[in-house]
TrEMBL record:
Protein name (database record): Alpha-L-fucosidase
Entry GO MF terms: alpha-L-fucosidase activity
Pfam families, per database record: Alpha_L_fucos, Fucosidase_C
Main localization of the protein described in the UniProt heading: other
Organism name: Cyprinus carpio (Common carp)
Amino acid sequence: MQVTRGQISLFLCLLSCASSLGTRYTPDWASLDARPIPEWYDEVKFGIFVHWGVFSVPAFGSEWFWWYWKGAQNPNYIQFMTKNYPPGFSYTDFAPEFHAQFFDPDEMADIFEASGAKYVVLTNKHHEGFTNWGSPYSWNWNSVDNGPHRDLVADLGAAIRKRSLHYGLYNSLYEWFNPIYLSDKQSGFKTRDYVEKKAMPELYELSDLSPDLIWSDGDWEAPDTYWNSTGFLAWLYNDSPVKDVVVTNDRWGLGCYCKHGGYYNCADKFTPGKLPDHKWEKCQSVDTISWGYRRNMKLSELMDLPSIIKDMVYVVALGGNYLLNVGPTSDGMIAPVFEERLRGIGAWLKVNGEAIYATKPWRVQAENATVPVWYTSKSSTVYAIFTSNPMQNSFTLSAPKTSNSTVVTLLGSPEPLKWAPLHSSGLIVLLPDLPFTPADAWTLKLDEVA
């Protein structure tokens, strides 16, 4: 019997569909850890983290304000409250002052897009328990019933997606002062009332909002078995509305960091000394003291543009993603100093972005050349990014192996540069006068090198 081309195509299609349908993940780490991370995440490289909540109202110290005031009873926070608020004022009294009256989702999304970021992660709920959407499991302690009286998650999400950026949601599993959680904690986590009545129902409902990324946190006091993390992730990867695109991190219970989940955070501001063997992300904040907005921040406590670019380049060269945080004010504004930093990053990426987006770590990640250099790559193209001006015309790179087909250019300038090979490997490049950039970073593009 003769088989037609159409029959072959149908058979291959059915085979592909069967294979896709057959990929089911079971609620155990061996199965869940084997899930490939969706490709979009590795390609985008740079994202914006947005810490926003009731903590943005006192805007003092850090987003852990409530804990430092009432949990740790830090004298600085107690003194701040004594000086500025009447006796009997509680943390929940801050919520009605969370007005977000100047919040324009399109304006905020424009700033994020101008930064060159390809994904945005908003705090849906921090450890204070206040949700930035109308959670039915957080009655009167959410942004629809209290404070702004609007769904901040949905409003920002619509603006982000209009610009074809990926949208993720940060979610704290635990809540500092939730009495149901504290009761479970008192039992040594032998009871799971908080998980069954609050944490998991809220997380399932949050997933129905179709986030591209779930950035889990607040997990470390209890094991993953308490949180039912494997059960949730199996559902997320198998049956949720975002099962094919969603990305997760590694904060799913005590002992999971740098070991289980999707990509690895390992720790805040994680800085590995060598190329990790698993996809990872560094979360960093422009304000080096706090993730939430602080009215008492000082310029000396903020990362400047060259520091941010240097940090990003290092992270991408080592195969990571860079998630840079800014905290909006309680009235919904991005502080001008943060906006200036973000637009500065975007200006640099307009010239140098091809050395960042969709790149892979090269066989050599860095070398101390004429000045320190970080490498990224795409196929037979290698990018050499240097984050200080060598202040001389000749520039030596030892790692690349050149050929007769090698072409060297400076990103932002189409003219090929003159170069000469070194004996075994490497080359000397004749640099032009480097164009001024507030980022203090430039990129050599080396085509056809090994």
